[in-house]
Structure formats: C-alpha cells, structure tokens
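Long-time lurker. I teach an intro course on protein structure, and each term I like to show students one example going from raw sequence to a predicted 3D structure in token notation. This year I'd like something fresh instead of my usual example. Would anyone be willing to generate the tokens for the chain below so I can use it in lecture? Attribution to the forum is fine with me.
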Amino acid sequence: MPSGQPFVGAVDVMQKPERFILTPFQKFCIRWSVFFDSSSDRLSRTETVLRTVQFSTIMITSGMTMTSVLIADNKKALESFTYFVICVFMLAIITFAIRTKRFNRTMLLMVVDEFPGYNRPMPDALKRKMAAIRTSYGDFTMKVIVSYLTLVLFEIPATGMVPLAAASLTDVKLGSQSTQMVVLWFPADTSQVGMYAFSYVIQFLIVVTVKFIITGIMCSFSFFVSQMIAEFQILSAYVEHAVEIVEYDRSADKTTEQKLSDHVKNCATLHDRLIHFKDQLNESYGYIILLELMFSTLYFCLSAFNMIFVGNRFVMVKGLLTLSNYLAELFIFCMYGSMVEDAHVGLLRASYSAAWYAQPVRFRQSLSMVMSRTQTPLQLTVGKVFIANLPLFLSVLKVSYSGVNALRAANAK
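-- Reply from a regular --
Happy to contribute to a lecture. Here you go:
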C-alpha cells in the first residue's frame, strides 16, 4: 500500500472519524520531525538550514577532535577519540534523521486523520474507557519526555561546570584535558584566559548542538510510538467488548450475527492499519536506534576505560554525566519496544476474553483471523538486526562491561 494512503474496506461503512486534535505538548514533540510542514516529503526551508548547520558543526568538530587524537598525549588522545566517535555517529544520525521526514509525515497524517477509529454507538462507560486510555498514554509520554528533558537540561550546565571547577579549584593549565568540555584541538593558545573563554563557548555550543539533535529524535519517536500503543489498547477494548458494543446498537438494518461479524472485520482493518504504522515506524527510526545501540556500547567502553585510565576526578564526573544521558536514551528506546510487544499480546488476550465460545460461527471465524495475526510478534526492530526491548538494554550493559574489562586487561599488559 502506498505511503500515506488511508486504509479502505470494512471501516468505510462507518462514519468518517473526527480528526485527531494535537495538544500543545504533542505539537512540541513532533516539531523536530516535520516542522508542521506535512504537505510535502521534502525538507522545509527551516529544516534544511537547521540540518546544514548541525552537519557542518559536527563535521568541523570531528576534524578538531581527530587532530587532537593525532598530536596529543595518550590520556588526552583517548578522550579526544571518544568525542570523535560521538561525532561520527552524530553525522550518521543526522543523515538518517533527514531520511525520516517522509515516514514521519505519513505517520502524522495517519495519527491525525485515521487514528480516532470509527464512530460507532457504544455505552458511555466504554467511551470513557477509550478516552482514559488515550489520556493515560499521553500523560505517560509527557512524564517520559519531561524526565528526559530534565536530565538533558541538568547534564548540559553540569558538564559545563566541571571544567570551570577544575580551572578554578586546581592548578592545572587552562586548556588541559580536565578544563575542556570537549577535548579537541584548537587553533590558538587556550592557556590564555581570553582564548580559553572563547574555546569554552565553542565547546558549549557543540554540546548543545548534539543534545538538540538527539532530543528532537527522542521527542518525535516517543510521540509516534505512544500513539500506536494507545491505539492497540483501544483496539483490544473494541475486540473484548464486541458483544456489548453490538447489543448497544439498536439499528434494525442487520441481524445481531451480521453486526458481530462486521464489527470484528472492522477490528481486523484497524489492526492492519496499526501494523502498517509499525512498519513505517521501523523504517523511520530502526537505523537510528541501531546507531544509538552501537554508539552507546562503544561509548560505554571508551568512556569507562578513559575514567579508569586517566584517574582524574573531574574527567570521571564529566564522563559519568554524559554516559548517564546516553544510557537513558537507549533505555527509552528499549522500554517503548517492550511496551509495543506487551500491547500486541494484550490484543490476543482480549480476543480470548471476548466470550467467543458463546457467539455465532461467523463471529468466531472472523475473530480467529484477528487471533492468528496477533500470534505473530509485533516488534520494533533495530536496523532489521535486533529487537528493541528491555532484554536488549541489559545485553548492552553486559557487553559494555565485558569490553571495559578487555580494555583494562590489554592495558595492563
């Protein structure tokens, strides 16, 4: 089915659903993904300028960090190489973030135009339940994003204060490893106060640029995946309360058996719609999550080894602050992946709870189609290689810890 084309079929017999009204917080979450320009797959002028600035900044930074790797001593070169790794992955993430515009536009149109479902008469208690599901997942997403933004807003100034504390509380030379936010080569003598202040501002802007890139991806991803999970919960309620919804419909144009069969077919159509949405989500963010996975593992190893190898308390604090932020990002990706799996399993449980054994044969046949589809796991893939879930996050921690021990053993020899 072409991207962005709405699903047609049994759902068309229902009234056209109302458009989904985005809240101010939801608009904030998707600002980075489509910049409110959902009329075209191409980048808007604002986004083109933004991505160009980001790409140029990271490209220049990667050159400065690599220069530091080549000319600095071993301890400083190791941390410079860690930041060079960050730059390489950031360049790849920016490239894939540009690619997500087309998929994000398709998903946004589905959320706004199709996700409210079909309007069918149902008891007020069920209507309140549907509304409560959307509200609860909206609140949950807001808590996740606010918590993440709080961590980012704490980490940036805290990381910035570490080199200033090192410069003021110790006798180390300005421009040395512990007095830099980002350890890189600078084409001037940073041991002078004025030039050091200028280089510090440059480093601070580099950190802000990196956080802006990742924060935009986290916000838009959280918005789309939470909407999908909420719709799966609503679909489960449609299936589980199928008999109650049909009995509430007093129209006499069809028999109860026909209404039940049509209702389940509509649910199957909604299920197809959500599977299509999941495919779009994987295409949009799968490779970005893969880069985040590879980057987090490698950064964990290099950063932890650097903290042990250097042994400077200021370098350790700076490394821990940055590491906690990147691990939080990977955890959010994996957490949502597990929630998607649980939501799909919940649809299977709802199908078994629909009192199918006491219903007509046509209803049971239609419901078996939904059951057979839900037996296939619905998962967020990490670049079509791994499955995004909480066990994957634990695996990253184990592999990273093993990598740190391997580096320590190699250094001891």
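Some talking points for your students: The first helix runs from residue 24 to 34. The mean pLDDT is 83.
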